[in-house]
């Protein structure tokens, strides 16, 4: 699916670039049709993801209020459209602004960071990750038993099982992911790609889980302090995502330059 969208966007980019080279106003408006087509594709993709995310949240937490209402189905695409179309209107007469190139670059990064969830390496690391977290939780409880009376500890854990286990598990998840990323080398291009790809998905997961938590909390009394805190968490995650995205763009350019040099050296495109 991503590959098909990327091919379509490349054709749209070629269309927009060709028309932007011409100096007439009519050519400029034709070029902006390419920008509008890119925006339409992005709205379609993001709307699909948003609807899927809402349905998954509703099914997972058994929220009966989450359902598709076709009377208002026009609203989510418009909600996504408004922020996407603002840069185009601001730069409408700026011929150096190519919306399609921005979107194509974004999809190139998506191709770089996509995960092979069916691969053996991914499955083995997932099993190791879950085993590590479960073992660390059990070991933490035993370590607490070295300082707290056993009867008191068992009673406290039984009364607050979900909260205490969740907190301990979260702490060990953060420790594991921090160590896992820090030990990755970043000397070569591919090593940098592996490291930044992992960082990218960690922050995307943090952003999605925080956003999902906010949606769930909106269904119950919401503390203003919690709202401010979660807003800053979202902002931090978003800033980190954008920072890593820029690094991935640099890696993508280096990879393209390397492929281009190889193509010129051997006289034929590499497959």
TrEMBL record:
Transmembrane annotation, as ranges: 33-58, 70-90, 127-148, 160-179, 200-219, 225-245
Keywords assigned: Membrane, Transmembrane, Transmembrane helix
Membrane found in the keyword field: yes
Name of the protein in question: Uncharacterized protein
